[in-house]
Amino acid sequence: MKIAVIVGSIRQESYNLKLAKLLQDRYQKELEIDILDIKKLPFYNPDQENDQIKEVDHFKKQVKEAKAVIWVTPEYNGTIPGVLGNAIDWLSRVDRVMIGKPSWMMGVSPSQLGTARAQLHLRDILFAKGVLSPVFQGHDVQIAGIQSKVDEEGYINDEATLAYLDKVIPLFKKWVEKHN
Ligand code: FNR
To answer: What InterPro entries does the record point to (predicted)?
Structure first.
């Protein structure tokens, strides 16, 4: 099952990117995960939304081809990072490729809130008219205190976190199958 993962951090050593990579490696039998690059997207500009911008077209095509999107994002100032909002703005216009496409939210943070506030905002955005994405709920992935849950190279090795993911990934897969 083809899944697009969109990471809300463009930082090279991003913990959220590491979570995305963990999903890609650990669940490769269950999910065919593509981690999309939002770094090269220009700022969304209504004057350009009908232009054929290579990066935008490619990004939208990858989302269109996926059965679902997993958003893996940090929290910035109590909400989602601007780069992620920009990516969603592109997806919400013209052919509106997110409409009806299932979503799941995940996030990693060094703080104790584990991106909970950002996810509340993101959920509202996913319900906006140009997005209208059904969101997989009741199985939150909000990983707090990340520094104590990684190995020397920064890869997540916390047993409770991995056991939780092992449990919820098949539930997500079943839920997506029902929505397609
Ligand atoms: C942060 N950080 C942060 N953390 C948090 O839990 N709540 C917040 O509101 C914020 N706000 C915030 C604003 C800005 C501008 C920065 C740069 C950082 C800390 C953030 O969670 C931390 O830097 C993460 O490591 C960022 O995620 P990546 O890049 O590691 O994926």
So the answer is: Flavoprotein-like_sf, FMN_Rdtase-like_dom, NAD(P)H-dep_reductase
